[in-house]
Amino acid sequence: MNGHLSVKHLLAIKELTREDVELIFSMADYFLRQVLSSPTRKAPGMRDVVVANVFFENSTRTKLSFELAAKRLGADVVNFSASGSSVAKGETLLDTLRNLLAMKMDVVVVRHSAAGAAHFLSRRVKATIVNAGDGAHEHPTQALLDCYTLRQKFGEIKGLRVAIIGDVLHSRVALSDIFALNLLGAEVRLCAPPTLLPKHIESLGVTVCHDLDPTLQWCDAAIFLRIQRERQHAGLFPSTREYSMRYGLDRRKLESLNKTIAVLHPGPINRGVELTTEVADGPQSLILDQVLHGVAVRMAVLYLLAGKRFD
């Protein structure tokens, strides 16, 4: 399959074109069908490439997904975590990365608590940078896998009604999802307490509702965001129990709808807060599909950015 991305790095959804996204999805289709479903689960298209996963924040799903994606493509993988490293001794982000690149890394997947960290690095190092989450800014591969999962479920995204529910204010996933869904022609509605929504968020081409029931009646798919338990100490909502009653999804609320909706969550789930176990593990949940599709999408991203092509 031939094709070229318009970008050298994957830093943010808002820097991609619709053609870029469609190319990533086409490659993900190939990897999902021909590689991840095959007995060997290998496509050695990056055998001569070294991928470094550089995570300055804790991560399980994203880090493992990128690692597995790179290994499925035959790349050499180096994992770096800030805990226990020289970062604890005061080494800067740039110094850390320059030391890694001196060991001849080609692609660097980076997660950092500072918004703009991936952009900062892309202007100062020669390696290809993939943003795996920078502060509350963006998480582009999560949005790509969310949209890919919706496309697999519904056939296309144009005209789809998608609700994003939860802590939008602190969520890099929400921002990337908004950009990606708008780019692909979906209608997006945000649902959260006013304290968990950024000011002027409607300027991004979304609508806002503070009530869950009409939002669920409106949407075809709902993406629930994790409530960070530390936020309740800031007084943004009274308690997780009250939040769950107003904005959490259980079987009763699902069964009260006059239609079937798809349920997504980027993880980790606070079971009993955003979703009950019955919903998270139920037939309308696409959460495990998101996990599988995350590997295929990240394989596509790494492969295309590394400049490799299948014959």
3D architecture notes:
With 311 residues, the protein is α/β, with parallel strands linked by helices. It has 2 domains: 13-138 and 294-305, Aspartate/ornithine carbamoyltransferase (Rossmann fold); 140-290, Aspartate/ornithine carbamoyltransferase (Rossmann fold). It has helices at residues 18-35, 61-72, 93-101, 117-122, 140-154, 172-183, 212-218, 240-247, 251-255, 277-280, 287-305; strands at residues 50-55, 76-81, 107-112, 128-134, 161-165, 187-191, 207-209, 221-224, 262-264. A 5-stranded parallel sheet has the order 7-6-5-8-9, with helices on both faces. Strand 3, helix 4 (117-122) and strand 4 form a beta-alpha-beta unit. It is globular. The termini are close together.
List the helices and strands and how they pair.
Blueprint: H1 18-35, E1 50-55, H2 61-72, E2 76-81, H3 93-101, E3 107-112, H4 117-122, E4 128-134, H5 140-154, E5 161-165, H6 172-183, E6 187-191, E7 207-209, H7 212-218, E8 221-224, H8 240-247, H9 251-255, E9 262-264, H10 277-280, H11 287-305
Parallel strand pairs: 1-2, 1-3, 3-4, 5-6, 5-8, 6-7, 8-9
Give the C-alpha Rg: 19 Å
CATH homologous superfamily annotation of the largest domain: Aspartate/ornithine carbamoyltransferase
CATH architecture of the largest domain: 3-Layer(aba) Sandwich
Strand content: 5-15%
Helix/strand-derived category reads: alpha/beta
Please state the overall shape, judged from the principal axes of the Cα atoms: globular
Succession of helices and strands: HEHEHEHEHEHEEHEHHEHH
Total strand segments = 9
Return the average pLDDT rounded to an integer.
90
Summarize the biggest pleated sheet: 5 strands, parallel
Low-confidence stretches: 84-90
Helix run count: 11
Level-1 CATH class name of the largest domain: Alpha Beta
Q: Spatial order of the strands in the main sheet?
A: 7-6-5-8-9
Quaternary structure classification: single chain
Distance between the termini: 7 Å
Provide the number of structural domains: 2
Helix content: 25-40%
- In the CATH scheme, what's the topology name of the largest domain? Rossmann fold
